[in-house]
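Let's practice the habit of predicting before peeking. Look at the sequence and jot down your guess about where helices and strands might fall. Then scroll down.
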Amino acid sequence: MSGTASGTDPALTESTTQTAARRHPQTVVVWPAQLNAQTLSADRLGAAEPGEPWTEAPYAHALRTGRGPLFLRRLSPPAHPDGAGREGELLPLDVERWCAVPDAADTGVLHRCTGPVLDVGCGPGRLVAALAARGLRALGVDVSPAAVARTRQRGGTAVRRSVFDRLPGEGRWDTVLLMDGTIGIGDDPVALLGRLRAVVVPGARLPAEADSRDADERLTGRASPRSRLGAAALLHAAEAAGWTLTGRWTAQGRPFMGLHRPQPVHHDKHVTVTGRPGHP
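Done guessing? Here is the structure:
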């Protein structure tokens, strides 16, 4: 799943961690396929037990059927007391859109891709398949077996792997995609963006999707942590990781940012007869 931990993991734990700067909000997966509106209250949705083994079943089922509903539910208040969230809040996962063909907002991103393209946290592979249909070499990377299988069924190429593991074509990708919240893979967006600098060629493009809300929070995940970043937080992380901003746009209510890996600076290496750098 593109918009969750490690790109695909909606099962988030009930435990709490601490950092010097902020308290991590707590969330847990909710799969209310048989629940009516009255049962969607915070006190009636079962929370995961601490230490309970994670299962991909709800997400895998959603990918197989192409529909939800599937949610994340907060088990604690958000880190910022600004009314941006509350305990028991349901955070919907847009399964139907992920499993559909690319919409107009997706198409705008695809037009900004030059190949070869790496889709990090590709989910069910709508973008990978669309790029392949356009004749671009594209590879999806996801930790979910269901996501990789669905991508391949759609005619795309995908591998089951963490982005922090060794990837095919390291250092040779012209474009890398971070869509559907995959900027939140792991608990350190700067580390993720720094990792992707090593995956792409100098001058590469990175279209990234920000959270529609002005979020900057870390969520504790059973399989792995994740983050939610709005546009301001995403830009801050990108600059810290050495990416430059080339453009910002919003399509169908979804905010995007175009990032660019600068070319390395070449110093004049011509050496004069004195043995010092200079010009002839």
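How did you do? Confidence is low (pLDDT under 50) at residues 1-54, 219-225, 271-280.
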